[in-house]
C-alpha cells in the first residue's frame, strides 16, 4: 500500500514536472510580463518620437543648406547680388521668386500645378515637418530679404538689400521655414510669444540654424 501510494505520488509529481517543463505559465507570470512590456513601451515610444522629430529637423536643415548654396551660386554669377523677390512664393499665386532664379543650381524641378489642379512639389522645397502649407503653395520656405526689398525705393532693390547686408554685417536668416513647423505644440503662424520659433533658417553668413526668426 505504501509502495502504491508512493508510486502514485511519483506519477503525479512527474505529471506536474512534465507540465512545467512543457512551457506552461501561471497567471501571475503572464501579468508580470505584460507589465514589464508596458513599462518598456512607455519608455521607448517617447524616445522614438523624439528621434523621428530630430530626423525631420536634420532633413529640413539639409534642404535649407541646398537652397542656401544655390543662393550663393546665384550671387557668384550676378556680381554678389541676392535674388529678387517681392512676394511670398506660391505656385497658386504664380509667385516663384526667388526659387525660380536659383533653380538652375538645384537638381530638382520647380513646384508646379498638375493637370488636376494639385500642387506637385518635393525636396528641397518642402520641409518634412510641413503637413499642409506646401501642399497648398508648393514651398515650405520663405525668403528673408523680401521685406527689405518691398520698402526699397531704388530701381534695383535686390542690389540695395545686398548692400545693406554687407554694410551692416548682419547674419540674419535669408531662407527660413514659413511657419514654426518644428514647434513641439505644432506649427503656429505669427509671433512666437517668447518661446522657440520652431523655424530653421539659412543665414547670410552661410550657417544653418534652429529657432531663427519669429
What order do the helices and strands come in, and which of them pair?
Elements: H1 2-21, H2 27-77, H3 99-102, E1 112-113, E2 119-120, H4 133-137, E3 141-143, H5 146-150, H6 157-168, E4 173-177, E5 201-203, E6 208-209
Give a description of the structure:
This protein is α+β, with helices and mostly antiparallel strands and 214 residues long. It has helices at residues 2-21, 27-77, 99-102, 133-137, 146-150, 157-168; strands spanning 112-113, 119-120, 141-143, 173-177, 201-203, 208-209. The strands form two sheets. A four-stranded antiparallel β-sheet has the order 3-4-5-6, with helices on one face. It has a two-stranded antiparallel sheet with strand order 1-2. It is elongated and about 85 Å long. The relative contact order is 0.12.
Tags for this model:
elongated, two-stranded antiparallel sheet, four-stranded antiparallel β-sheet, single chain, 6 helices, alpha+beta, 214 residues
Spatial separation of the terminal alpha carbons: 92 Å
The SSE string, one letter per element, is: HHHEEHEHHEEE
Number of helices: 6
Provide the gyration radius in Å: 30 Å
Structural class: alpha+beta
Provide the low-confidence segments as ranges.
Answer: 186-194
The helix fraction, in percent, is: 40-55%
Task: Provide a quick synopsis of the model.
The protein is an alpha+beta fold. It is built from 6 helices and 6 strands. It has one domain.
Amino acid at each position: 500500500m505504501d509502495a502504491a501510494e508512493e508510486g502514485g505520488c511519483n506519477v503525479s509529481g512527474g505529471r506536474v514536472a512534465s507540465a512545467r517543463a512543457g512551457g506552461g505559465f501561471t497567471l501571475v507570470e503572464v501579468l508580470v510580463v505584460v507589465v514589464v512590456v508596458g513599462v518598456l513601451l512607455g519608455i521607448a515610444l517617447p524616445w522614438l518620437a523624439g528621434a523621428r522629430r530630430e530626423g525631420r529637423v536634420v532633413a529640413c536643415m539639409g534642404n535649407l543648406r541646398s537652397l542656401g548654396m544655390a543662393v550663393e551660386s546665384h550671387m557668384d554669377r550676378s556680381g554678389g547680388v541676392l535674388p529678387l523677390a517681392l512676394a511670398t512664393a506660391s505656385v497658386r499665386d504664380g509667385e516663384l521668386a526667388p526659387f525660380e532664379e536659383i533653380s538652375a543650381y538645384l537638381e530638382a524641378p520647380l513646384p508646379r500645378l498638375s493637370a488636376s489642379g494639385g500642387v506637385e512639389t518635393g525636396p528641397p522645397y518642402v520641409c518634412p515637418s510641413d503637413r499642409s502649407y506646401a501642399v497648398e503653395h508648393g514651398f515650405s520656405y520663405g525668403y528673408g530679404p523680401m521685406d527689405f526689398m518691398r520698402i526699397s525705393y531704388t530701381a534695383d532693390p535686390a542690389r540695395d538689400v545686398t548692400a545693406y547686408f554687407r554694410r551692416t554685417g548682419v547674419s540674419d536668416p535669408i531662407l527660413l521655414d514659413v511657419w514654426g513647423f518644428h514647434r513641439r505644440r505644432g506649427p503656429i503662424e505669427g509671433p512666437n510669444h517668447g518661446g522657440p520659433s520652431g523655424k530653421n533658417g539659412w543665414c547670410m553668413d552661410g550657417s544653418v540654424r534652429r529657432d531663427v526668426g519669429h
